[in-house]
Amino acid sequence: MDISTNAKSRSLVLAGFRTASTFEDIPIINLEDARNDDPVVRRALADQIRDACINVGFFYVKNHGMPEDTISKAVDAAKRFFALPQSRKTALDIHRSPNFKGYTALLGENTNPENRGDLHEGFDIGWEELTGTSRTDDGLMTGENVWPADMPGFREAALEYYHSAVRLGRSLFPLFALALDLPETFFDDKTTKPAAIMRLLYYPPQTGPVDDRLQGIGAHTDYECFTILWQQDDVQALQVLNANGKWVNAIPIPGTLVVNLGDQFARWTNAVFRSTVHRAINRSGVERFSIPLFFGTDYDVKLEALPSCVSEDYPPQYEVVTAGEYVKSRLEATYAHSKVEH
Ligand SMILES: O=C(O)CCC(=O)C(=O)O
Ligand SMILES: [Fe+2]
């Protein structure tokens, strides 16, 4: 279906909507102008973002404002954590947490139900002030972070990255709003206590015969509005699926981060913004690390199709649920296969 010719639709967003997304490249967007005083300049940037969101669902950002030092300290922390003896990591197992905080063992997660488990280890954290405690008022998703003992500087490095990525994420929401023909402030009251989950990820190199059911992370879409992903410069692993069924490599580009849309945005936008299927396979022969931060709206906010993404001929495609119900149900499904009683 291509509804771009729908005469009844006056929405600029719907006017650009194509369902056959046969991209071969992932665009690079320069965020230098994100806070430019001139609304015309911000509008031009939002137009580029709209194009990427409608046609690809993925883009790189450069001049994103996250300090290199913050990134490298978090990557070092991840390397130290995953090198710990297995028993120290297992002590923080994510299944012990009421709300998905802590360590995921190799094969502990299965993002694609057709697969045998994902060949990565992970460590998940949510919002926590550097000098305070975790937030405890998230209803459905409430849960304290868990931290490894005797790892000086680990918590600080992880939280510094978390807050820096959340700042970047907050600066993207006004651009997404503009891209959707909404006031720049539209998401402000929906992102008052950022529902952001950060993961440190470790992918061991995969050797031996190719097993399509055993991948670093199986084919999936992300659950929140968007993901900000740091990926290791020298290892190609991330791939993005286009409408021709071709896996397009999201090659690591030094100095950039990857931004990809998740299913919350697909729901807000009635699938006009694309939550594109992706996977990661590390056959490079060396270890790979990555750090996604998944940024959604507050957990009590309802995911409802925006007026600019609905027309008489294109009614809402999804039932309305809250962001918290939605993320929790997706996380439960992801971890169900490795659940054991603790
Ligand atoms: O590690 C990567 O490059 C991708 C990770 C990912 O897709 C995810 O955690 O949802
Ligand atoms: Fe993902």
UniProtKB/TrEMBL annotation:
<dbReference type="GO" id="GO:0016491">
    <property type="term" value="F:oxidoreductase activity"/>
</dbReference>
<keyword id="KW-0560">Oxidoreductase</keyword>
<keyword id="KW-0479">Metal-binding</keyword>
<dbReference type="InterPro" id="IPR005123">
    <property type="entry name" value="Oxoglu/Fe-dep_dioxygenase_dom"/>
</dbReference>
<dbReference type="GO" id="GO:0046872">
    <property type="term" value="F:metal ion binding"/>
</dbReference>
<dbReference type="InterPro" id="IPR026992">
    <property type="entry name" value="DIOX_N"/>
</dbReference>
<dbReference type="Pfam" id="PF03171">
    <property type="entry name" value="2OG-FeII_Oxy"/>
</dbReference>
<protein>
    <submittedName>
        <fullName>Clavaminate synthase-like protein</fullName>
    </submittedName>
</protein>
<dbReference type="Pfam" id="PF14226">
    <property type="entry name" value="DIOX_N"/>
</dbReference>
<comment type="similarity">
    <text>Belongs to the iron/ascorbate-dependent oxidoreductase family.</text>
</comment>
<keyword id="KW-0408">Iron</keyword>
<dbReference type="InterPro" id="IPR050231">
    <property type="entry name" value="Iron_ascorbate_oxido_reductase"/>
</dbReference>
<dbReference type="InterPro" id="IPR027443">
    <property type="entry name" value="IPNS-like_sf"/>
</dbReference>
<dbReference type="InterPro" id="IPR044861">
    <property type="entry name" value="IPNS-like_FE2OG_OXY"/>
</dbReference>
